[in-house]
Design brief:
The protein is of the alpha+beta class. It has helices spanning about 75-90, 150-165; strands spanning about 10-15, 20-25, 30, 35-45, 50-55, 65, 70, 95-105, 110-120, 130-135.
């Protein structure tokens, strides 16, 4: 089927009143908007140890990250962060405040990261996780973190705890979250 006879939002063009090329249906005028994905997660602790999980899936399988993932339709950012912690680490957590909102434009992603605490130290690896760990600050596997935003969130969490300033943070100046330069 050629693009001229294809049905649905398959025709790239700038819709009337818009300023970007979108996929449009020639029959009914429906416009398919491709928007950024929202990822939610949390930096949670038990006493003085932070919860991390080692990824079983790509990208960055084998590297350590926060319990985090994409929001599902119909849930709030809080519900998503609680669900991701449960799915990836078996953790029951309480969220305290929004720690940061990070922008990762290369992959059209917005990350909403919460600060919180474990309600119990009982954690275990979920389906997408190789292992979980509770790390003191000095024992965090800094060289094996999956993404720059994991490091940012950990550093922002520590700063918030030390200063008492719970203002939501954002990307460090000039940082875009590109992990392609990190070790494989």
């Amino acid at each position: 089927m050629s693009n001229e006879t294809a049905q649905g939002p398959v025709h790239p063009r700038i819709p009337e009143g818009d300023n970007r090329e979108r996929l449009v249906c020639n029959d009914c005028g429906f416009v398919l908007y491709s928007n950024p994905k929202v990822m939610v997660g949390s930096v949670v602790h038990w006493e003085e140890r932070v919860l991390l999980c080692r990824r079983e899936i790509e990208p960055r399988a084998g590297f350590w990250t926060l319990p985090a993932g994409f929001m599902e339709n119909g849930e709030t950012t809080e519900q998503g962060a609680l669900r991701e912690a449960r799915e990836e680490t078996g953790a029951d957590i309480a969220l305290d405040h929004v720690l940061a909102v990070y922008n990762i434009p290369r992959i059209s992603q917005v990350q909403v990261i919460y600060a919180g605490r474990l309600l119990s130290p009982d954690v275990h690896a979920g389906d997408e996780t190789l292992e979980v760990g509770l790390f003191t600050w000095d024992a965090i596997p800094w060289d094996d973190l999956a993404f720059p935003s994991v490091r940012w969130a950990l550093e922002h969490w520590r700063e918030a705890r030390q200063t008492g300033d719970q203002t939501a943070r954002s990307n460090p100046s000039g940082e875009t979250g590109d992990y392609r330069h990190l070790k494989s």
